[in-house]
Amino acid sequence: MAEIKAAQVMELRKKSGAGIMDAKKALVASDGDMDKAMDYLREKGIAKAAKKSDRVAAEGLADIAINGNTAAIVELNSETDFVAASDPFKALLKEVTKLISENKPATVDEALAIKTDNGTLKDDIISTTQKTGEKVSLRRFTVVEKNDGDSFGAYLHQGGQIAALVVLEGGDEATAKDVAMHVAAINPEFMTREDVSQDRLDHERAVFKEETLNEGKPAKIVDKIVEGRLNKFLSQICLADQDFVKNPDQTVAEYVSANNGKLKSFIRYEVGEGIEKKQDDFAQEVKDQMN
What we know:
The longest helix is centred in the last third of the chain and has 19 residues, at 219-237. The radius of gyration is 23 Å and the shape is flat. The strands form four sheets. A three-stranded antiparallel β-sheet has the order 1-2-5. It has a three-stranded antiparallel β-sheet with strand order 6-7-10. Strands 3-4 form a two-stranded antiparallel ribbon. Helix 2 (20-29) crosses helix 3 (34-43). By secondary structure, it is an alpha+beta fold. The chain is built from twelve helices and ten strands.
């Protein structure tokens, strides 16, 4: 049996909203597997919500540049938010985003090789690293193309902590920007229900069924309840079916349609998502320096 650490219990408690003892029991039952423990809590009706843990750790900013029918969304990282807020970092981010939108590289290595007045983009990043005294790095980017009749929508939240880029078939820039704001705020996983894999559907259906049976519902209505819960779940994770933040009486798809458009694609960057951040022990650091 795997050793269950306090940090695991706290992480599961944060994700699920369950109590400490319930979280520990779930981890023991699942032999320390976080995903299985989450399913265990959901099946028992203990989990309040299948929230994703916040793993935003690296500092930096994201930006979007639009160049005709091409747009680029970029994330540039630094070690501290102090440097991310500095003028040299912000100037570099603007340059990087602009050059990527113009040159359309396919990989980070190709982007770093783009020619600049000082040599290459990599040279410019090294120069900014030297100016700020911190490592600055290009983490990721996506180049997006649209047709002449399509509309780009771009939105930056908190100066670039979150960036969202949307493409509508038809519509207009104002509508597309509204959808980009929604994407930034709500963070949908998929565009439509058709984009959700069968494996994901089967998994969620099985979890909902176990949860419903554990609630003691009559067997003859379990399947109906399960499908209702699955539909509600899909409406929460799919952009087209989500209640539009500016008008909850409409879904996002309905809002876009009312403005002569159709959802085509979206991308959302949250700075540092998926990167584990080193947790410094200040007390230990002071102690080490005194020895």
